[in-house]
Amino acid sequence: MRLSLAHAPVRLALWLPWATVTVASLLLSDNLTGFHGDESGGTHRVSSGLMQCGEYSNEVMPNGQCRLMATLPQLAEQRCPDMFRCTDEVSYWLRENEERKQQVQDLKETISELQEELRSHRHRIKVLEMQHQARTGWNASLEQRFHTLEESYTEATALLQVHGSLIYDMQRQVRNLSMVVERVRRNPGCMINIVRTSPLLNAHEVLHPEVQHIRNCPIDCASLYYSGVHRSGVFTIVPSREGTPLEVYCDMETEGGGWTVIQRRQDGKVNFNRKWNEYKNGFGDLHTEFWLGNDHIHDLSSQGAYSLRIDLEDWNGKHKHAYYESFSTEDEEHQYRLHVTGFSGTVEDSFAWYHDKHSFSTPDTGNICAEISHGGWWYNQCFFTNLNGVYYKGGRYSAKSKNLLGPDGIVWYTWKDSDYYSLKKVSMMIRPRTFRPRLSP
């Protein structure tokens, strides 16, 4: 390409790579007379010996390119020297520059595509992370469920063991019942299905008064013990003298069991200030406080040789007992006269030595001791033992504060050395003198 100049001055600026300018400068120097320049690539001017064709300069820019400045003045019909003979080289480098620019643009587009693909990959990674977290949570949920199932299995195993133990116990009880049924089948002497109404039973336990009785029934709690009953509770017996079924409370635990309880005091809920007929037939509740009845005590103690045990408890929780090897009472015609001997135990005797061979009295019989003592007992003048007296909570009491004529509490004199200390709990029970625990019938 040639550069023609006419009319007005023209300023031309080119930015070229430094190598390109160097070649151009060398070429220009061959065509310009009076050329002056410095090796450092400073300002170059055309010699004044030529027509004024202008001037040019070049300098290296910070980015490594060469800045070429040419000022061409207005000329009439003259031409400036052909300053750019190396047009092909300049064009080559310009084309190279354009290709590089296109490459840079292509690189920018490629980078943009790569960035977009990178964003896509990051999005996929985020989705995969979320899926991983979801799977992790699901696995944790499964692990928790598995742990819960393990706990449930452990509990179920424990319950199965308990149920197995219960089933085993029930099977054992069924076997015991089967043995009892078989024993009854082989010896069906006692077949009591319905018993008479008893004043010692509460309203829920009262049965119809019809009686069905056949021989060989248990005559006391010892007989029940020998037949296989080894738990305490209320049972039906048929004393041999009367031949009438009777509900009694059996103590199958104290000193080997087999005891028929004839009296119990424990909370003062039952009033023992009763008349003769009430003491004759019995009163109270077999599960709490009661007097079995003088007729029944006579029937029981007269069908063999019986012993008596009396258990005592004071308000400090101390326990003592008295044992009498021989015990019986006479019938009503003889006022249920007492026969009791052969003392032993953990408390001094206050019963046999003073009350033996004395008749039973109640407040309505005219006995002054019974009236003063407000109870029924085998009174002498009046008592050293009064187990059917008034129940005083706390133990000690005074006749003056109660406006009494004399002591009337639940007294065992030789334990507390006082007529004015009322015991907290007492019980009287009998069994055959020849009883031996855990023997077969």
From TrEMBL:
**Coiled-coil region:** 97-131
Where are its TM segments located? Answer: none
Principal localization reads secreted
Matching Gene3D superfamilies, A to Z? Gamma Fibrinogen, chain A, domain 1 (3.90.215.10)
Q: Which residues form the Fibrinogen C-terminal domain?
A: 212-434
Query: Which Pfam families does this UniProt record tie to the protein?
Result: Fibrinogen_C
Annotated GO molecular function terms are:
extracellular matrix structural constituent; protein-macromolecule adaptor activity
Q: Which InterPro entries match?
A: FIB_ANG-like, Fibrinogen-like_C, Fibrinogen_a/b/g_C_1, Fibrinogen_a/b/g_C_dom
Q: Which SUPFAM superfamilies match?
A: Fibrinogen C-terminal domain-like (SSF56496)
Q: Which GO terms describe its biological process?
A: blood coagulation, common pathway; fibrinolysis; platelet aggregation; positive regulation of heterotypic cell-cell adhesion
Name of the featured protein:
Fibrinogen C-terminal domain-containing protein
